[in-house]
Amino acid sequence: MDVHRGFNIVNVNGMGRIFLSLVALLKKDFKEVKNLIPFWILSILLFVLYLFYVKLLTGSFAGGGLFEALLQRSGVGEEGQIANLNIFTYLNQMRLWYVTLFTLTLCLLSGLWFMFKLITRKISDSDFKILTLGIFGITYPLIFINSSYIHNYLIFYMLPFIALASASMFNILVIRFKVKNYRWLFFTSIILIVFLERFEFTKALILSEPDKFSVEVGRFINRETKPDETVTIQADPIFWETSENFLKYYGGRRLVFSQDAKDGVVVQVDNEKQTYKLIKE
To answer: DSSP state, 28?
Structure first.
């Protein structure tokens, strides 16, 4: 686990505690707030341990490009800007992520549930918890815009909301249209629709082997370099962001990224042409 992924784990852990506490405070359940205090203490301890972990690795509590990574992932400053990324391209990318990963059917059901609750304003305790999960799920992509634009797995925090809101809307539709006797038929129909939505995508994903090139480069690094060597990856930043885990796992070497490496062991990668070469100076 590197410095930046360590921050992600601690960050998500802390965000979860914040939203649980907000739910308890809004419900004026002070007993529940009291029960959450040990978890707050645990979150603080995790963050402190994380800082010492960074200190151990880099020699500084803010080492490893921690703040630079935060700026880059959130899109703040000139260095954090992604070409052609604006509010419209970002929202379109989120739409593609959600429809692709959660299916249009479940997105529509959860969206209808949200609109239904917004219009009727009949929100039970369980509804409130579902809404809280939705707020929690959308927070990370809104803060770290660059990362969520590149990494689709960052929207997975919305999965609990999508699943529960869709199931709740299913029950509402069954009751409203008085089809309790056909509940299983209705349920089976939704499952079938979701399956048909996912079938072509899953088939395309298997056939396309999207990370095949990253695995190939990683194995090349492992084969052509020595175990004690530090290898610099000279490539497009997007390639490094999306392929870092595969390169490190299959390469089995200490890897660093640079766009203008001039010495040492360098692997130049051209993702568009699907070519790579090793340079030793």
So the answer is: T
Cβ neighbours for 268, distance < 8 A, ≥ 6 positions apart: 234, 235, 276, 277, 279
Instruction: Centre a 10 Å sphere on the Cβ of residue 245 and count the other Cβ atoms it contains.
Output: 13
Among 179, 208, 237, the domain-final residue is 208
Does residue 71 sit within a domain? no
pLDDT given for residue 161 in this prediction: 92
Question: What is the extent of the structural domain holding 19?
Answer: 1-64
Q: How many domains does the chain have?
A: 3
CB count within 10 Å of CB 142 equals 11
The DSSP code for 81 is P
pLDDT at 44 over 90: no
Residue in 279, 248, 253 with CA at minimum distance from that of residue 266:
279
- Is residue 118 domain-shared with residue 60, that is, in the same domain? no
pLDDT single digits (tens) 238-265: 888 888 888 988 998 889 888 887 778 9
Mean pLDDT of 185-196: 85
